[in-house]
Amino acid sequence: MSGEHLWEARVELLSGTTGKILEIGFGTGLNLPHYPPATESITTVDVNPGMQVLAARRIEASSIAADVRVLDGEQLPMEDASFDSVVSTWTLCSIRNAEQALREVYRVLKPGGRFFFLEHGLSHEPAVRRWQNALTPVQRLVADGCHLNRDMKGLIGGQGFQFREANEFYMEGVPRPFGYTYRGVADK
């Protein structure tokens, strides 16, 4: 998840984040260098404790204060309306109950807060969808629960978010069943 075209997608998405930020699915911290300099703080959530060890180098190199937590995005222990921005990049595909995680994102966002997302998911093309549906059971086994066939725009919109910006496209250099991408910003 660190190719040049993926870095560019991260930079573009994260340039609009502000204030106190929550990132679900922090992983190895690939987004950290791309947050704007005015970022107040970031709270990170990742269910895999091994990722925290891998992210330590990026956290140490960053000037942003990071509160790193090993948690699952479905049950966030944060107070209601406590973040200005919430970020999810290539994470909602692997959360067991994505709807519940999105309800939690909505809950912890301040009124007027923004959800920034960059996710792969269900294509609009029937032939690609067939491949996504066929490959998802194997993908879930080999890629930490990843579903190729989730309608990310429908999931996000179904939790009460209002889309400020929403784009769908195939990621360059990625096979179509794996590369259909949703990128956008949704307001609470």
What keywords describe this structure?
Rossmann fold, 7-stranded mixed beta sheet, alpha/beta, single chain
Could you describe the 3D structure shown?
With 188 residues, the protein is of the alpha/beta class. It has one domain: Vaccinia Virus protein VP39 (Rossmann fold, 3-Layer(aba) Sandwich), CATH 3.40.50.150. The chain is built from six helices and seven strands. A seven-stranded mixed beta sheet has the order 3-2-1-4-5-7-6. Helix 3 links the parallel strand 4 and strand 5. The radius of gyration is 16 Å and the shape is globular. The protein starts with a helix and ends with a strand. 38% of the residues are buried. The model has no long low-confidence stretch (mean pLDDT 92).
Relative helix content: 25-40%
Which strand order spans the largest sheet, edge to edge or round the barrel?
Answer: 3-2-1-4-5-7-6
Question: What's the total helix number?
Answer: 6
Shape: globular
Structural class: alpha/beta
Number of strands: 7
User: From the coordinates shown, what is the CATH architecture?
Assistant: 3-Layer(aba) Sandwich
- End-to-end Cα distance, whole Å, is 28 Å
CATH class reads Alpha Beta
The name of the CATH topology is Rossmann fold
Order of helices and strands: HEEHEEHEHHEHE
Q: Main β-sheet, in a few words?
A: 7 strands, mixed
> What would the average pLDDT be, to the nearest integer?
92
Work out the radius of gyration: 16 Å
How much of the polypeptide forms β-strand, as a percent range? 25-35%
CATH superfamily: Vaccinia Virus protein VP39
Indicate how many domains the architecture comprises. 1
Which regions contain 5 or more consecutive residues with pLDDT less than 50? none
